[in-house]
Amino acid sequence: MAETTNTDLLVVQNLSRSFGSLAAVNDLSFEVHRGEILGMMGPNGAGKTTVFNLLTGVLKPDSGSLFLDGKDISRLSPAKRCRAGIGRTYQTPRPFTKMTVLENLMVAAVHGGGLLEKKAMYKSDEILDLINLTSVRDNFAGSLSLLDRKRLELGRALASQPSLILIDEVAGGLTEKEAEQLLGIVKEIQQQGITIIWIEHIMMMISEGADRILCIAEGKRMQCGDPSEVMGSKEVLACYLGAEEA
User: Which pLDDT tens digit goes with each residue over 77-87?
Assistant: First the structure.
Protein backbone atom coordinates (compact mmCIF):
# COMPACT_ATOMS: atom_id res chain seq x y z
CA MET A 1 0.00 0.00 0.00
CA ALA A 2 1.45 3.37 -1.00
CA GLU A 3 2.24 5.80 1.79
CA THR A 4 0.72 8.74 -0.05
CA THR A 5 -1.41 11.80 0.46
CA ASN A 6 -3.82 13.66 -1.79
CA THR A 7 -0.96 16.01 -2.67
CA ASP A 8 1.15 13.21 -4.16
CA LEU A 9 0.59 12.21 -7.78
CA LEU A 10 3.57 9.84 -7.99
CA VAL A 11 5.17 7.83 -5.21
CA VAL A 12 8.36 5.86 -5.86
CA GLN A 13 9.30 3.34 -3.18
CA ASN A 14 12.67 1.59 -2.84
CA LEU A 15 13.29 1.42 -6.59
CA SER A 16 16.38 -0.53 -7.69
CA ARG A 17 17.82 -1.64 -11.00
CA SER A 18 21.24 -3.12 -11.73
CA PHE A 19 23.06 -3.93 -14.93
CA GLY A 20 25.42 -6.73 -13.97
CA SER A 21 27.49 -5.46 -11.07
CA LEU A 22 26.50 -1.81 -11.70
CA ALA A 23 23.68 -0.52 -9.48
CA ALA A 24 22.20 2.16 -11.77
CA VAL A 25 19.31 2.89 -9.37
CA ASN A 26 19.80 1.93 -5.74
CA ASP A 27 16.87 1.80 -3.29
CA LEU A 28 15.54 5.15 -4.52
CA SER A 29 12.40 6.65 -2.96
CA PHE A 30 10.74 9.99 -3.67
CA GLU A 31 7.33 11.56 -4.25
CA VAL A 32 6.07 14.09 -6.78
CA HIS A 33 3.37 16.54 -5.72
CA ARG A 34 0.40 17.26 -7.96
CA GLY A 35 0.98 20.19 -10.27
CA GLU A 36 4.64 20.73 -9.39
CA ILE A 37 7.80 20.68 -11.49
CA LEU A 38 10.30 18.38 -9.81
CA GLY A 39 13.77 18.94 -11.22
CA MET A 40 16.05 15.91 -11.23
CA MET A 41 19.77 16.54 -11.26
CA GLY A 42 22.96 14.60 -10.77
CA PRO A 43 26.31 14.03 -12.47
CA ASN A 44 26.60 11.95 -15.63
CA GLY A 45 25.97 8.30 -14.80
CA ALA A 46 23.88 9.15 -11.74
CA GLY A 47 20.95 7.04 -12.99
CA LYS A 48 18.54 9.78 -14.04
CA THR A 49 17.58 8.37 -17.45
CA THR A 50 17.36 4.88 -15.96
CA VAL A 51 14.80 6.27 -13.50
CA PHE A 52 12.76 7.59 -16.44
CA ASN A 53 12.96 4.22 -18.18
CA LEU A 54 11.74 2.52 -15.00
CA LEU A 55 8.87 5.00 -14.62
CA THR A 56 7.69 4.46 -18.20
CA GLY A 57 8.10 0.68 -18.10
CA VAL A 58 10.84 0.48 -20.72
CA LEU A 59 12.91 -1.20 -18.02
CA LYS A 60 11.69 -3.51 -15.27
CA PRO A 61 12.94 -2.84 -11.74
CA ASP A 62 14.80 -5.47 -9.75
CA SER A 63 12.75 -4.32 -6.76
CA GLY A 64 10.54 -1.47 -5.63
CA SER A 65 7.09 -0.09 -6.38
CA LEU A 66 5.53 2.78 -8.33
CA PHE A 67 2.19 4.37 -7.49
CA LEU A 68 0.49 6.85 -9.83
CA ASP A 69 -2.51 8.63 -8.33
CA GLY A 70 -2.60 5.98 -5.60
CA LYS A 71 -2.65 3.03 -8.04
CA ASP A 72 0.16 0.50 -8.29
CA ILE A 73 1.55 0.69 -11.84
CA SER A 74 4.70 -1.34 -11.15
CA ARG A 75 3.69 -4.19 -13.45
CA LEU A 76 1.97 -2.25 -16.23
CA SER A 77 3.36 -2.28 -19.77
CA PRO A 78 4.71 0.95 -21.30
CA ALA A 79 1.54 1.34 -23.37
CA LYS A 80 -0.70 0.96 -20.32
CA ARG A 81 1.41 3.42 -18.34
CA CYS A 82 0.98 5.92 -21.16
CA ARG A 83 -2.78 5.43 -21.05
CA ALA A 84 -2.64 5.72 -17.25
CA GLY A 85 -1.21 9.21 -17.65
CA ILE A 86 2.58 9.16 -18.09
CA GLY A 87 4.01 11.06 -21.07
CA ARG A 88 7.66 11.45 -21.96
CA THR A 89 10.09 13.42 -24.09
CA TYR A 90 13.56 12.32 -25.18
CA GLN A 91 16.82 14.26 -25.14
CA THR A 92 17.15 13.59 -28.88
CA PRO A 93 13.76 14.32 -30.50
CA ARG A 94 12.15 11.31 -32.18
CA PRO A 95 9.45 12.64 -34.52
CA PHE A 96 7.98 10.72 -37.43
CA THR A 97 10.05 12.65 -39.95
CA LYS A 98 7.91 11.78 -43.00
CA MET A 99 4.69 12.83 -41.31
CA THR A 100 3.51 16.41 -40.84
CA VAL A 101 3.76 18.24 -37.55
CA LEU A 102 -0.01 17.91 -37.11
CA GLU A 103 0.05 14.20 -37.91
CA ASN A 104 2.78 13.65 -35.30
CA LEU A 105 0.55 15.18 -32.66
CA MET A 106 -2.51 13.27 -33.81
CA VAL A 107 -0.70 9.94 -33.57
CA ALA A 108 0.09 10.72 -29.93
CA ALA A 109 -3.44 11.96 -29.24
CA VAL A 110 -5.13 8.91 -30.79
CA HIS A 111 -2.81 6.09 -29.78
CA GLY A 112 -1.42 7.56 -26.57
CA GLY A 113 -4.37 9.62 -25.37
CA GLY A 114 -7.17 7.42 -26.71
CA LEU A 115 -8.96 10.30 -28.48
CA LEU A 116 -11.16 9.90 -31.52
CA GLU A 117 -9.81 11.50 -34.70
CA LYS A 118 -12.01 14.62 -34.65
CA LYS A 119 -11.23 15.33 -31.00
CA ALA A 120 -7.55 14.52 -31.63
CA MET A 121 -7.35 17.13 -34.40
CA TYR A 122 -8.98 19.77 -32.20
CA LYS A 123 -6.64 18.97 -29.31
CA SER A 124 -3.61 18.93 -31.63
CA ASP A 125 -4.42 22.39 -32.96
CA GLU A 126 -4.65 23.66 -29.37
CA ILE A 127 -1.23 22.21 -28.64
CA LEU A 128 0.26 23.67 -31.82
CA ASP A 129 -0.76 27.09 -30.57
CA LEU A 130 0.80 26.46 -27.16
CA ILE A 131 4.13 25.25 -28.59
CA ASN A 132 4.20 27.96 -31.28
CA LEU A 133 4.18 25.60 -34.26
CA THR A 134 0.88 26.56 -35.90
CA SER A 135 2.72 28.19 -38.80
CA VAL A 136 4.43 24.88 -39.71
CA ARG A 137 1.39 22.70 -38.99
CA ASP A 138 1.47 21.02 -42.41
CA ASN A 139 5.25 20.80 -42.82
CA PHE A 140 7.05 17.48 -42.57
CA ALA A 141 8.60 17.02 -39.13
CA GLY A 142 11.91 16.11 -40.75
CA SER A 143 12.24 19.66 -42.09
CA LEU A 144 12.09 21.33 -38.66
CA SER A 145 14.96 23.12 -36.93
CA LEU A 146 16.32 21.66 -33.69
CA LEU A 147 14.34 24.18 -31.63
CA ASP A 148 11.10 23.30 -33.42
CA ARG A 149 11.80 19.59 -33.03
CA LYS A 150 12.17 20.19 -29.31
CA ARG A 151 8.85 22.06 -29.31
CA LEU A 152 7.23 19.17 -31.16
CA GLU A 153 8.70 16.70 -28.68
CA LEU A 154 6.97 18.57 -25.85
CA GLY A 155 3.78 18.74 -27.90
CA ARG A 156 3.70 15.02 -28.60
CA ALA A 157 4.08 14.25 -24.89
CA LEU A 158 1.26 16.68 -24.13
CA ALA A 159 -0.99 15.18 -26.84
CA SER A 160 -1.08 11.82 -25.05
CA GLN A 161 -3.29 13.44 -22.37
CA PRO A 162 -0.89 12.89 -19.47
CA SER A 163 -1.21 13.82 -15.84
CA LEU A 164 2.59 13.47 -15.55
CA ILE A 165 5.23 14.40 -18.15
CA LEU A 166 8.85 13.27 -17.91
CA ILE A 167 11.08 15.82 -19.67
CA ASP A 168 14.60 14.65 -20.54
CA GLU A 169 17.07 17.52 -21.15
CA VAL A 170 14.85 19.45 -23.52
CA ALA A 171 17.27 22.40 -23.61
CA GLY A 172 20.29 20.41 -24.79
CA GLY A 173 21.98 21.88 -27.86
CA LEU A 174 20.02 25.13 -27.81
CA THR A 175 21.12 28.74 -27.37
CA GLU A 176 20.28 30.55 -24.14
CA LYS A 177 17.48 32.46 -25.87
CA GLU A 178 16.01 29.27 -27.35
CA ALA A 179 16.21 27.53 -23.97
CA GLU A 180 14.30 30.38 -22.38
CA GLN A 181 11.55 29.97 -24.97
CA LEU A 182 11.20 26.30 -24.06
CA LEU A 183 11.17 27.16 -20.36
CA GLY A 184 8.15 29.35 -21.07
CA ILE A 185 6.38 26.45 -22.78
CA VAL A 186 7.17 24.09 -19.89
CA LYS A 187 5.72 26.60 -17.42
CA GLU A 188 2.58 26.93 -19.57
CA ILE A 189 2.18 23.15 -19.52
CA GLN A 190 2.43 23.25 -15.72
CA GLN A 191 -0.24 25.95 -15.60
CA GLN A 192 -2.62 23.48 -17.25
CA GLY A 193 -2.37 21.39 -14.08
CA ILE A 194 0.11 18.85 -15.44
CA THR A 195 2.82 17.53 -13.16
CA ILE A 196 6.38 17.42 -14.50
CA ILE A 197 9.64 15.66 -13.68
CA TRP A 198 12.45 17.42 -15.48
CA ILE A 199 16.01 16.19 -16.02
CA GLU A 200 18.22 19.08 -17.09
CA HIS A 201 21.95 19.83 -17.02
CA ILE A 202 21.48 23.55 -17.66
CA MET A 203 21.28 24.85 -14.12
CA MET A 204 19.54 28.10 -15.06
CA MET A 205 16.63 26.13 -16.47
CA ILE A 206 16.25 24.01 -13.35
CA SER A 207 16.71 26.85 -10.87
CA GLU A 208 14.12 29.01 -12.63
CA GLY A 209 11.72 26.25 -13.63
CA ALA A 210 11.57 23.74 -10.78
CA ASP A 211 9.52 23.98 -7.60
CA ARG A 212 11.74 21.38 -5.92
CA ILE A 213 14.92 19.59 -6.95
CA LEU A 214 15.81 15.94 -6.38
CA CYS A 215 19.55 15.29 -6.60
CA ILE A 216 20.76 11.73 -7.09
CA ALA A 217 24.22 10.21 -7.36
CA GLU A 218 25.18 6.60 -8.06
CA GLY A 219 21.49 5.81 -8.21
CA LYS A 220 20.85 7.00 -4.66
CA ARG A 221 18.90 9.95 -3.31
CA MET A 222 21.17 12.71 -2.03
CA GLN A 223 18.88 15.64 -1.34
CA CYS A 224 15.41 16.86 -2.26
CA GLY A 225 13.96 20.27 -1.56
CA ASP A 226 14.01 23.95 -2.43
CA PRO A 227 16.17 24.60 -5.55
CA SER A 228 18.40 27.20 -3.90
CA GLU A 229 19.06 24.96 -0.90
CA VAL A 230 19.82 21.85 -2.96
CA MET A 231 22.01 23.65 -5.50
CA GLY A 232 23.87 25.46 -2.71
CA SER A 233 24.48 22.30 -0.70
CA LYS A 234 28.14 21.45 -0.05
CA GLU A 235 27.30 17.78 -0.55
CA VAL A 236 25.76 18.42 -3.96
CA LEU A 237 28.57 20.75 -5.04
CA ALA A 238 31.18 18.20 -3.98
CA CYS A 239 29.35 15.52 -5.97
CA TYR A 240 29.45 17.62 -9.14
CA LEU A 241 32.97 18.94 -8.73
CA GLY A 242 34.28 15.49 -7.93
CA ALA A 243 32.38 13.66 -10.68
CA GLU A 244 34.12 12.46 -13.79
CA GLU A 245 32.38 12.77 -17.13
CA ALA A 246 30.91 9.43 -18.26
Answer: 999 999 999 99
DSSP notation for the chain: -----TTEEEEEEEEEEEETTEEEEEEEEEEEETT-EEEEE-STTSSHHHHHHHHHTSS--SEEEEEETTEE-TT--HHHHHHHTEEE--SS----TTSBHHHHHHHIIIIIT---HHHHHHHHHHHHHHTT-GGGTTSBGGG--HHHHHHHHHHHHHHT--SEEEEE-TTTT--HHHHHHHHHHHHHHHHTT-EEEEE-S-HHHHHHH-SEEEEEETTEEEEEE-HHHHHT-HHHHHHHHHPPP-
Q: Is 0.70 topped by the overall pTM?
A: yes
